[in-house]
Amino acid sequence: MELTETQRQELAEAEAQRHETRRPVSPGLEAMLFRPLPVLDHGFVRVVDYMGDDSAVVQAARVSYGRGTRAANEDRGLIRYLMRHRHSTPFEMCEIKYHVKLPIFVARQWIRHRMANINEYSARYSILDREFYLPAPEQLAAQSAVNRQGRGAVLEGDQAAHVLDLLREDATRNYDHYLEMLNEDAEGRVIEEGRTGLARELARMNLTLNAYTQWYWKADLHNLLNFLALRADSHAQYEIRVYADAMLDTVKAWVPLVHEAFRDYRQGAVTLSAQMLAVVRGIAAGADPRQEGSGLSKREWRELMAMLGREA
Amino acid sequence: MELTETQRQELAEAEAQRHETRRPVSPGLEAMLFRPLPVLDHGFVRVVDYMGDDSAVVQAARVSYGRGTRAANEDRGLIRYLMRHRHSTPFEMCEIKYHVKLPIFVARQWIRHRMANINEYSARYSILDREFYLPAPEQLAAQSAVNRQGRGAVLEGDQAAHVLDLLREDATRNYDHYLEMLNEDAEGRVIEEGRTGLARELARMNLTLNAYTQWYWKADLHNLLNFLALRADSHAQYEIRVYADAMLDTVKAWVPLVHEAFRDYRQGAVTLSAQMLAVVRGIAAGADPRQEGSGLSKREWRELMAMLGREA
Amino acid sequence: MELTETQRQELAEAEAQRHETRRPVSPGLEAMLFRPLPVLDHGFVRVVDYMGDDSAVVQAARVSYGRGTRAANEDRGLIRYLMRHRHSTPFEMCEIKYHVKLPIFVARQWIRHRMANINEYSARYSILDREFYLPAPEQLAAQSAVNRQGRGAVLEGDQAAHVLDLLREDATRNYDHYLEMLNEDAEGRVIEEGRTGLARELARMNLTLNAYTQWYWKADLHNLLNFLALRADSHAQYEIRVYADAMLDTVKAWVPLVHEAFRDYRQGAVTLSAQMLAVVRGIAAGADPRQEGSGLSKREWRELMAMLGREA
Amino acid sequence: MELTETQRQELAEAEAQRHETRRPVSPGLEAMLFRPLPVLDHGFVRVVDYMGDDSAVVQAARVSYGRGTRAANEDRGLIRYLMRHRHSTPFEMCEIKYHVKLPIFVARQWIRHRMANINEYSARYSILDREFYLPAPEQLAAQSAVNRQGRGAVLEGDQAAHVLDLLREDATRNYDHYLEMLNEDAEGRVIEEGRTGLARELARMNLTLNAYTQWYWKADLHNLLNFLALRADSHAQYEIRVYADAMLDTVKAWVPLVHEAFRDYRQGAVTLSAQMLAVVRGIAAGADPRQEGSGLSKREWRELMAMLGREA
């Protein structure tokens, strides 16, 4: 994440500005505003704007509950109640906007979350930066033997070095050929006078999927939490999870009560199927149930036992 | 729009607060924040929060255009370009939240705009206010003879008085019976000790469609403009148009450049069908085209002539 | 649910038609097509069209899994896996369209599900039927004393009769006044020649919320299941639950494997918060945990004990 | 677009099947079902399923218009009316599902249309085909000098050959290295026993943006037309336009009346801003307006004159 001098100056100016507002303010998030949180080797996430705070969730819920409940509940209890019962509309009343720099293959996963607003840097108009993601050595994982979408042991020695060489050389060469076809350098200056460059919308197809792009991404708090529930999770691919982890830190600073409820009722929660519940009720009644006859597959059984802290 | 003492106090407190923020601020909208703009006889619209301003649209667009255009365009020109070419995503980067009090039959039209977040006051939990919409005399229109969804001449004299009597009496009686069934008064106090009240979720069905409800309604600027293009328009029913008109005033205060572009390229714009365009080209070439053979229906022909300021 | 002769004939014609198609067909749902399933006193749900079946879910999932898994999984297992892990996109590949007749206050709850397509009968253009919902005696429930949104004991005797009288008389009177203001009867015939009728878009505001409306409602299977998870549930208001129950029957006929997975992994499933899980792990390890110190509120504790089949 | 023997067989089976259904059928689209329409060098679009036809639009609109209009309008007129006045909800009642094979950089544009359902072939699970898009010689365009997002003259001779060589060599080499890192061939067979392959979710980042992916893409007719209005248009990039053109052919076969209305009121239509309309009214009144003082920029003036078939 190397910023140009101009970008550094713009960030400093944005951070320095102070305005007076009547709107509610989240002190925790104000302190993080505009600062890029580094992610991967060249990426970042930074909060560009936000609307609302914990109390905005409460305020919206009370319109729908009306005056009767106003006195009865205090804010934390109400937020926990809403999270637990998946009353999602009050969380939609907060909004946040990020500027993100990320590899294209991560962007392709990310964009599957449709309930968000996006403006992406366009390679039809502009030239992409000469930056590509190269995994850190400890992330150079083999295909998992047991999980079709997971990672296994880390590659080592010559093999790891070879893979990194291929990734670096291919990305670099393809980027250099991209500029050559454009007949422009990374700052848009003509390389060879008199030679015609290929259209940008075509030349970009030579780039690799680990090239970095960037976008403005805006979502309401409910949809952001849905995104984080999936992506700040051990089943998510590492390269998107690190973005989600950084965003989770901004949520904690922004809406601490919502963050706590999210941790207890979403991140730390588990769902038991009808069959799993029957097994748990059996255990609670002193029985010693077994996989056979439980209606659970072996895999579900193993998962349930792991959940309960038992040997499968 | 009669506020209780408590509500008046809450509004005054909200208006009095001042915070420091690094976020961009719209001075025009800050001045309007929290104040109810009266609409119809008991309704209002008030801005509760917002995010972004004219420059947020520009900033988002420039991520997607990239550094090359940064110098070339100035903000107003870029915003007009985006509006004209219906590049909608940069407008999605601004967000606004309203608190609205409105008759239920207006709420039923309004909610057809799905791209918004809503928290409505719930009559399952709470008791609605004793307020119903009664049209002003000049709004007591007859069914239009030519337009199935329009209004004709205004009713007058005895007939108008009779209609107003019916509306007032029926709404009042039904509301009183609603309380009677609940065995509660409008403040939720038991009317007759020892008598059981009907469940709120049932009793509400006795209310009329001109009873007032209220909600928090939040949308991004793009979807808000879509709403206003349809509802702040002469074809919209008067009772929703007055809400849209009030909201348009808030847009003007909030994002003046966007508002100006909206006026020129959406509100004041017309669309010509392929056949209409052919007629206009004929006129521009000095011909004197007629409806017969134009491919336009009589109605379309009349509309085109009206657009052009000609006799049909 | 009284159909006119014309409507009866249209239904009979629709049911009688047979076409040849290359598209997949759901035999179970074909048998139910077009037939109104009666709901409440005058309402109905009927399937008007559909797209896809169980195998469409599998087919879509296998594009995203690719050739490797093709042989390994059989359809039922894959559908259960997708449901369990909340992989929602394959379920979005099936679509269903209903024609529904329902009271307006139910329609107002229903429409909060935004991820659907709706065309509602418009009272701006047309005259509504003379039909309103009157609860059956066993549904005339008092407000619950413990649950702000629930029902308590059933009203009886004089009190029940009185409530029903009020509901019937108010709805009838208001409807009659609606026609009087329109100066039209329910079939749109002028009542009194020479008198001007109030515009339909205005007169409708005199109707009560138990008047019936109707709409076409279309959703994909994923969003339909979200709707059913909330509305075919004991926490939903009775008057919308009976619609959801009827729709659940159509889902069972349409996509039996999806229906079975929905029952096991959504309807019959429970979610344990982080704190609840800790309690359950304690029980599984032989401990006898108590509410104090568990991090659970009394209400959550009671719920957990009920889930486990234990005394609280 | 080379299909494997298995794929060819699956297609033949799908095409051969015949079922009986009560649902409406579109004969024109039935004839195209399942058949891949070739697009670009290795891509295709094929219709996999559909729901509804022209009459479904009419049927839905008439619920919202009610019985009164039933006799007055005939189908074609009503569909044209709806299209002209942008009444979009009746068009949402039809649905279509495509299977598409397309280059990744096209997929990245396409997916910006959020109102659709997608299941994409996953390179986390599976190995992509050894196919990449190489522009045909007449598509090897230079960057436009006047339009930042357009194409200029076609590259020729050595330069064109050199660009094609770079694209082909880079894509091929990167794909081969992708397999080498995976230690698998394109069919998933291990290349070198005993060597550990890199995880698929990582190796894919070495692919170029002209590699082909595939997905199931489903949308309702309203959102499909929005997609086609933007993408089957001369301003769209050629590589996505050819997909949109093929899809437009399927729309014509499926809903001929809707297609005709779309052509007249969307594709062939133009929008005049408030200022443009003033100029046109001037011309219609016999004046000879000029750019100065018109409120139009030079670019807008040129566009208007071109629209009117006049010299700028």
UniProtKB/TrEMBL annotation, chains A, B, C, D:
<keyword id="KW-0285">Flavoprotein</keyword>
<feature type="active site" description="Involved in ionization of N3 of dUMP, leading to its activation">
    <location>
        <position position="231"/>
    </location>
</feature>
<dbReference type="GO" id="GO:0050797">
    <property type="term" value="F:thymidylate synthase (FAD) activity"/>
</dbReference>
<feature type="binding site" description="in other chain">
    <location>
        <begin position="120"/>
        <end position="124"/>
    </location>
    <ligand>
        <name>dUMP</name>
    </ligand>
</feature>
<dbReference type="GO" id="GO:0032259">
    <property type="term" value="P:methylation"/>
</dbReference>
<dbReference type="GO" id="GO:0006235">
    <property type="term" value="P:dTTP biosynthetic process"/>
</dbReference>
<feature type="binding site">
    <location>
        <begin position="220"/>
        <end position="222"/>
    </location>
    <ligand>
        <name>FAD</name>
    </ligand>
</feature>
<keyword id="KW-0521">NADP</keyword>
<feature type="binding site">
    <location>
        <position position="89"/>
    </location>
    <ligand>
        <name>FAD</name>
    </ligand>
</feature>
<feature type="binding site">
    <location>
        <begin position="112"/>
        <end position="114"/>
    </location>
    <ligand>
        <name>FAD</name>
    </ligand>
</feature>
<keyword id="KW-0808">Transferase</keyword>
<feature type="binding site">
    <location>
        <position position="120"/>
    </location>
    <ligand>
        <name>FAD</name>
    </ligand>
</feature>
<comment type="pathway">
    <text>Pyrimidine metabolism; dTTP biosynthesis.</text>
</comment>
<comment type="subunit">
    <text>Homotetramer.</text>
</comment>
<feature type="binding site" description="in other chain">
    <location>
        <position position="204"/>
    </location>
    <ligand>
        <name>dUMP</name>
    </ligand>
</feature>
<keyword id="KW-0489">Methyltransferase</keyword>
<feature type="region of interest" description="Disordered">
    <location>
        <begin position="1"/>
        <end position="23"/>
    </location>
</feature>
<dbReference type="GO" id="GO:0004799">
    <property type="term" value="F:thymidylate synthase activity"/>
</dbReference>
<feature type="binding site">
    <location>
        <position position="231"/>
    </location>
    <ligand>
        <name>dUMP</name>
    </ligand>
</feature>
<protein>
    <recommendedName>
        <fullName>Flavin-dependent thymidylate synthase</fullName>
        <ecNumber>2.1.1.148</ecNumber>
    </recommendedName>
</protein>
<dbReference type="GO" id="GO:0006231">
    <property type="term" value="P:dTMP biosynthetic process"/>
</dbReference>
<feature type="binding site">
    <location>
        <begin position="109"/>
        <end position="112"/>
    </location>
    <ligand>
        <name>dUMP</name>
    </ligand>
</feature>
<comment type="function">
    <text>Catalyzes the reductive methylation of 2'-deoxyuridine-5'-monophosphate (dUMP) to 2'-deoxythymidine-5'-monophosphate (dTMP) while utilizing 5,10-methylenetetrahydrofolate (mTHF) as the methyl donor, and NADPH and FADH(2) as the reductant.</text>
</comment>
<dbReference type="GO" id="GO:0050660">
    <property type="term" value="F:flavin adenine dinucleotide binding"/>
</dbReference>
<dbReference type="Pfam" id="PF02511">
    <property type="entry name" value="Thy1"/>
</dbReference>
<keyword id="KW-0545">Nucleotide biosynthesis</keyword>
<dbReference type="InterPro" id="IPR003669">
    <property type="entry name" value="Thymidylate_synthase_ThyX"/>
</dbReference>
<dbReference type="InterPro" id="IPR036098">
    <property type="entry name" value="Thymidylate_synthase_ThyX_sf"/>
</dbReference>
<keyword id="KW-0274">FAD</keyword>
<feature type="binding site">
    <location>
        <position position="226"/>
    </location>
    <ligand>
        <name>FAD</name>
    </ligand>
</feature>
<dbReference type="GO" id="GO:0070402">
    <property type="term" value="F:NADPH binding"/>
</dbReference>
<comment type="similarity">
    <text>Belongs to the thymidylate synthase ThyX family.</text>
</comment>
